[in-house]
Amino acid sequence: MIDLTQTDYAYVARWPRVKAAALDFVIIILFSLVVLCVIVYQNPPAFLLLLSGEFDPSNQHEAEMLILMISLGVWAVLGLGFSLGYDILSIYFNQATLGQIMIKAKVIDANTGGRPTLRQCLIRTFAKTLAQVDRSNRAFAGLNEKYQTYQDMMADVLVVSYKCAHK
Fold this sequence. Notes:
Blueprint: E1 9-11, H1 14-42, H2 44-52, H3 62-94, H4 98-102, E2 105-109, H5 118-131, H6 137-140, H7 150-155, E3 157-162
Antiparallel strand pairs: 1-3, 2-3
């Protein structure tokens, strides 16, 4: 395990990490809304029928409704795929998501202090996705001296920033 006292890094506390997560959430929502707008634009009558709640399977719009429901399912899968890909690729190539870049934080390997491996990025992202069910994940970050969340411990990574960044 790397000793941060011998480096220019400090652990990033819980609240800056919450800010970074909120910024990343906004980015993912904006992407998802753009995709949803494209879906609605491609099939507006069926979307309006679905919103009105007056769906009658014997109606001529049944095929349009089926297409819309499939499109919304595809939208949900694309949103999840974008979210997972965004986290994995951002951490792997930049050592930080855009939210983490905004708070001047980065993810490092807890053993070497270097760039996390692809395996660590995958474990961290999938553990983070599973931890969304348990909302105590962010609160858990404040309970240990390294401010690690579940996904950080599972992937054996640390979220750090330069010591002067949060003063």
